[in-house]
Write a structure and sequence with these properties.
By secondary structure, this protein is mainly α. The chain has one domain. It contains 13 helices and no strands. Helix 3 packs antiparallel against helix 12. It is globular and about 55 Å long. The termini are far apart. It holds the Pfam family PAP2.
């Protein structure tokens, strides 16, 4: 599949970037963290567990659907990267040009941001950021006004996309594709989940709004299927890194669908005394999944367990609370 997207696909964007002050580039290196996968999934999990009816008519359904939508976005990214196998810009390769005025403590952080391996098309940060912030803006429909939510989501998604070009780990076309893929997968995921705004049909509960009847299970299943396709393409192409990413996508989609089977969608928010240790445990599993990426079966088991726990927690929190009280 290599060659479907040109290796040299720039349009002169780095000439503009190279003229920017170093301080601006460092600032954008910080902005890129707003779409780090660990941050997005932590934010989505916290929203899913804690959101009240003040932000969505059915907060548990809204939160789980947001997680499913972003899972679909990452599955599409894994497929695209394995399919096109397009390299990153030369600026993403070592050595890093670290500003001499940065303190030693920040030099290592900066170098980690501006060096990146793997394939470049589409941008995972641009895709994940667009999907996450758009999904939150659409699904938490009682928070702020529509205009404020959409503007905020668009501003963050565009800032993240711009940051990937400014730190020279992606071409402009990579991030533009990422924004489109992210928005497109959200639309598909919401349609599968039964969002009446995407389906063009009235919801069954006007008082609860468009989140009342959402079912994220089909979107989780789609993510698993697309990730399986990405795995097949990655194996055929011998792309080891993409094999791991696709495997994690399969586990995340399957784990979300399994976890949702425990939930009826009407659960109250998770008590903090349950959520804090649960976040530590699931976060540990997630970190372990990536740390053990060389052992794919262990990675898949750890990822599946983490996602099942995250999605099922609202239904299990009562039992956990009783256990903690004993």
């Amino acid at each position: 599949m290599t060659g479907l997207v040109a290796a040299e696909r720039g349009i002169g964007e780095f000439a503009v970037v190279d003229a920017l002050p170093e301080a601006v580039v460092v600032a954008f290196a910080a902005v890129t963290h707003l779409a780090d996968p660990w941050l997005l999934f932590a934010m989505l999990a916290v929203g899913y567990w804690f959101a009240s009816e003040g932000v969505a008519g059915s907060p548990r359904r809204a939160g789980a659907t947001a997680i499913a939508a972003v899972t679909c976005a990452y599955a599409a990214t894994a497929l695209g990267k394995a399919w096109f196998a397009a390299p990153r810009p030369p600026g993403a390769m070592p050595p890093a040009d670290v500003p001499t005025w940065l303190p030693a403590l920040l030099s290592g952080w900066y170098e980690a941001q501006v060096l990146s391996d793997g394939f470049g098309f589409p941008s995972g940060h641009a895709t994940g950021g667009a999907a996450a912030y758009l999904a939150l803006a659409l699904l938490y429909d009682r928070l702020w006004t529509d205009r404020a939510r959409y503007l905020a989501a668009g501003a963050v998604a565009v800032a993240v996309a711009a940051s990937r070009v400014v730190i020279e780990v992606h071409y402009l076309v990579d991030v533009l594709a990422g924004l489109l893929v992210g928005a497109g997968t959200v639309a598909v995921a919401l349609r599968l989940a039964g969002d009446p705004r995407v389906r063009g049909s009235p919801g069954t509960d006007a008082a609860a709004g468009p989140t009342a009847d959402l079912n994220p299970a089909p979107a989780f299943a789609l993510a698993a299927v697309v990730s399986a396709g990405a795995l097949a393409v990655a194996v055929a192409g011998g792309h080891t890194g993409e094999v791991v990413e696709a495997g994690i996508g399969i586990a995340t989609g399957a784990g979300g669908a399994i976890g949702w089977r425990f939930v009826d969608g009407e659960e109250p928010s998770v008590p903090p005394r349950v959520a804090v240790p649960a976040l530590a445990v699931t976060g540990g599993l997630w970190v372990g999944a990536y740390a053990l990426a060389g052992t794919l079966p262990v990675t898949l088991v750890a990822t599946t367990a983490a996602v099942v726990a995250v999605v099922a927690l609202p239904a299990l929190s009562g039992r956990i609370e009783r256990s903690l009280a004993e």
